[in-house]
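Input.
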Amino acid sequence: MDWNQVVWLAVLQGLLEFLPVSSSAHLVLLPHLAGWPDQGLAFDVAVHVGTLVAVLAHFRREVLCLLGGWWRSLRERRLDEHGRLAWAVILATVPVGLAGLALEPLVATHLRSPAVIAWATVGFGLLLWAADRWGPRRRPLRALGWRDALAVGLAQALALVPGASRSGVTMTAGLALGLTREAAARFSFLLSIPVILLAGGLETVRLATAGGPVPWAAIGVGAALSGLTAWVVIALFLRWIERVGMAPFVLYRLALGLLLLWAF
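Output.
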């Protein structure tokens, strides 16, 4: 990888990680279109870690409240609003963790193709449109129950397919369950914290113990750039999502998917 590729991929990840358009798909597609070598899963995880720092910075007070509520649930055996949401995040993380461990070789090789990305981009885009169009959109985040959290978690496991979009499938599930757009987006963003933390930690250990040269400079710069970009995107997305809705993202997904089907 040269520095031009590092910068473009990092900024692209920061722009798209929390939008329902699949940042992972774009990280696979851009090298194809630009004639670059595939940057590999390690760099993809590194720029995702940058976006983790961004979401922690934006939701720092809420994350502290969730941690406090979770600790009180263990110490005092009682659940308050923050404790319930913290356990909901944990429950929704279990399916994608198990699926990631089981399917990682398949995801890292055979699913990183333009054809898979194209079909996933179109199919999951249509599901997002349906959930946004017909979902009641009345329930706040505090109304999220255990079954709801598990349903969103099972949907999140589908995001292992490039083109599905982790934020896209979790927002789709949240909207289908009746959450408001902002509530679905907030829960999706909170779910990104344990998922990226687990994936980033595992890949970091592998890089450190693999032996041979590791492009730590490129990984560090990529993580920093993606984090700064994502921090801005999170604030703007939450401010505009109730007014704008999901239609612009659905239209973009359909256009991109059809273009890829035609090209590849």
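The two ends are 24 Å apart (CA to CA).
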